[in-house]
Design brief:
Elements (H helix, E strand, L loop, with lengths): L19 E3 L63 H5 L7 E7 L6 E10 L2 E11 L5 E2 L9 E2 L1 E4 L3 E3 L10 E3 L5 E3 L14 E3 L26 E4 L9 E3 L1 H10 L7 E6 H4 L2
Parallel strand pairs: 2-14, 5-6, 8-9, 12-13
Antiparallel strand pairs: 1-10, 2-3, 3-4, 7-14, 8-11, 11-12
Length: 272
């Protein structure tokens, strides 16, 4: 689910004018209801505890204290990951050998860059680097449904899917018409095809299920449906979006045997 901003970077006031028509089988990318087997409660007006971790892989880093439950520190070679501070590095599980690093341009910016890293005996080696979008209003350490910000933190990547056929993903892949999306974003860009390829980010979700599953371990008020998905040329509701070809390459790269994670946030937050 996505929104757009004007060309000067300011948020236009009439968000209600955004036309976002999703299939009845799916409400994804940041919030809403709809389920293929999880708890289906509305995110709107729901109070939830301000927990920092729930099920495995759902940890969100906070500025006031180290994140909990994300696994053991990644080791000394993690220092080779550029732009990451000690708190962020400590949240990367020691078993992780693939990192998708999403670095936001600014705290309130919807523009970011994605770089792939692979851990080798010599340390972390960079791979492809791609332009990306994140949420309309930037980033937050305390994500809630409807805040139009992407959650910062370190999250496991365990499940994928999309409207298109599996291109050869090593992650479990759910192909479904439930990934259909129509309508337009805030600047009138078409949303069609945004969910052709999807990788679920394990923020407030149940690992090992389809990205379309609506189970929310931290409660509906903490948001969910945060994905890597196909870019439509504008900011997102909470997800990170990449060009379709780059999403396909990502699906061919991520390997559950390598315990991939996404490390995401604005550049300043990641240095903590």
């Amino acid at each position: 689910m996505s929104f757009s901003i004007n060309r000067t970077g300011g948020v236009r006031p009439a968000l209600s004018a955004v036309v976002l028509v999703l299939s009845v089988a799916l409400t994804g990318c940041g919030g809403g209801t709809g389920s293929t087997g999880g708890a289906g409660s509305s995110a709107a007006g729901t109070d939830a505890p301000a927990a920092t971790s729930g099920a495995a892989g759902t940890t969100q880093a906070r500025p006031s204290r180290p994140s909990a439950g994300a696994g053991a520190p990644a080791g000394a070679d993690a220092a080779r990951l550029p732009g990451l501070g000690p708190r962020t590095l400590a949240a990367i599980p020691g078993k992780a050998r693939q990192v998708v690093l999403v670095t936001g341009r600014g705290r309130n910016s919807p523009v970011s860059e994605v770089t792939l890293y692979r851990r080798t005996d010599a340390g972390w080696e960079p791979g492809a680097a791609w332009p990306a979008h994140n949420a309309l209003r930037g980033w937050t350490d305390d994500h809630h449904a409807g805040d139009l910000r992407s959650p910062t933190g370190v999250f496991a990547l365990t499940d994928a899917g999309g409207l298109l056929a599996d291109p050869g993903s090593k992650l479990p892949y759910d192909r479904s018409g439930g990934f259909s999306v129509t309508g337009t974003g805030f600047e009138g860009e078409p949303l069609s095809g945004s969910f052709d390829y999807v990788v679920a980010i394990n923020y407030n979700r149940e690992p090992g299920t389809s990205p379309r599953d609506w189970t929310r371990p931290l409660g509906a008020g903490r948001g969910g449906g945060i994905w890597l998905h196909v870019d439509h040329g504008g900011p997102t509701h909470g997800c990170v979006s990449l060009a379709q070809g780059h999403m396909k390459e990502l699906l061919l790269t991520l390997d559950p045997a390598e315990h991939p994670v996404v490390v995401m946030g604005d550049a300043a937050s990641l240095t903590r």
